[in-house]
Request: fold
Amino acid sequence: MVNTKSTSKIGKIAELERRQKVAASLRETLAILNTNLPLEKLLNYIVNQACPLLNADAAAIYHLQVNGILTIQGLVGLSNEYIKYGNIPLGKMATGNAALTKKPIFVYNTRELLEEPGITSDLVMAVDKLSKEFSSLLSVPIEIREENYGSLTLYYRKQHAVTEEEISLARDFSNQAALAIDNARMRTQIKQDAVTEERNRLARELHDSVTQNLFSANLIADTIPVLIQRNPQKALEGLDELRLLTKGALAEMRSLLLELRPNALEDTSLEDLFHQLAETASGRLRKPVSLEIKGQAFLPSDIRLTFYRIAQEALNNIIKHAEAETIKISLTLTPDEVDGTCTSAVLVIQDDGCGFKDIPDSAIHLGFCIMKERAQNAGADLEIKSKVNIGTTIQLSWKAKDEEFA
Reply:
């Protein structure tokens, strides 16, 4: 005689274990969605998780294209024979109907799909291939912010009577696919926005510095022939200014080319980068900018970039706001006696401009905040001293930690 209580208890335990597996799978999938894995891998992970939990033998995520055709974007368990016929028009078969109606569509016997009105010869071949491999299927829509994105379709080799709980779980996996796709889109948009912003910044730099310098150089070049006859001394001064302008424009163009190729910043020595900065500043200021570099040592790439960016920001601020006549840049690198790596670096930038009493919080001095944030992130100290009508001194100091030499 069968012990019904014992059987019932075993059934409850099995159901509890199944629910725990479902919960664990959904948690794992959500964790994967927060990574930077490519979308294709994320979708393949989702269908691989969905199949065993929904007792399915295969699964596919379909994406609705602009031409009204649903194409496979992620899959597991489907043969190459069927994939050849995997393009499904919107509103056709279970996959197309689920996407159109935004409702789950279940087909107990896949041969029934041949009875669908308006089925084309291509779809007849697709159904023929499908029915030879799978007897039942379930398709649920994938919606992203009310957009009809496509469908998640699950395939069963044997005829399968799907339950409401399975449909609900299929919807959960459909929602996870939607979340993965939405996250991927946002990451792509963020990258595109960053690229656009960087292009706009470079365009502004090109307009504010190079274009204006070349325009000024052209004006000076036009007046020099006249000045040579009327005032040779003024003509010589004009030639000096023309030399500074063209040299600065060339340095500015080189800097912009480095910005367009980020790896080039790492490949260029700090000394060369600072020479370019000094020449660029000289062209924009139209006066010589002194640069002194003491010592040679190898700085970590992130620290090199920090020194370059802070110097770049400091010089931009001086040229735009300080009304300075002179700028002095000093960079001191102290090498380790054993391997030549840098143990400390000190950058000092001085100007004789208008100065200020206190560092204001206004938008034009946002550069100071950016400089301080960069210094903090690099473990460096930034000190800014200024006196009204005397000038400003900016000092950036960095020391290597002991573990960097371990």
Notes: Residues 164-230 form the longest helix (67 residues). DSSP finds eleven helices and eleven strands in the chain. The chain has a mean pLDDT of 81.
